[in-house]
Amino acid sequence: MSFDTFKIVLDKIPSLQHICLFNWGEPFLNPSIFEMIRYAKEKNIRVMIHSNFSIKKNDDFFLRILKSGLDSLVISLDGASQESYSKYRIGGDFYLVLSNIRTLVNLKKERRLQNPNMIWK
Fold first, then answer.
1. Domain 3-120's class?
2. Hey, is 112 helix, strand or coil?
3. Domain ranges of the chain
4. Contacts of 54 (CB under 8 A, 6+ apart)
């Protein structure tokens, strides 16, 4: 979804209190995702994202998550080991997801931030 379409939808529903961004692709691949989060937060809308969190990114990406105002991040970690994870995420890297989680948690701690609330699904 484009940022312009996202704005139109939010502007048409002024009573909206909470949005959950997921399905039909990885939300963090949308080039406008951080603008979308900030726009929703400006309207006092709580924002939750569901992600497989299996994208290789640098610290700047994780800092953008923290600065965006995201309320909750649900991470789909489909297994408790590389072996079980691979059954559901063909070609997926269990350890990359764990590394991404660790990076975000550490950056949150360094900045003494509460959000985003992180949920393992």
1. alpha beta
2. coil
3. 3-120
4. 89, 92, 93, 96, 97, 100
Residue 66 burial (CB count, 10 A) = 16
Least Cα distance to 77 among 106, 109, 59, 101 occurs for: 101
pLDDT surpasses 80 at 23 = no
**Taking all residues of the chain, what is their mean pLDDT, rounded to a whole number?**
94
7 class by beta-carbon count within 10 Å (0-12 exposed, 13-18 middle, 19+ buried): middle
Q: Please write down the long-range contacts of 61-65, taking CB distance under 8 Å and 24 or more positions apart.
A: 61/28, 62/100, 62/103, 62/104, 62/107, 63/107, 64/34, 65/34, 65/104, 65/116
Please state the length of the chain.
121
Predicted confidence at residue 6, as pLDDT, reads 96
DSSP 23-57: SSS-GGGSTTHHHHHHHHHHTT-EEEEEE------
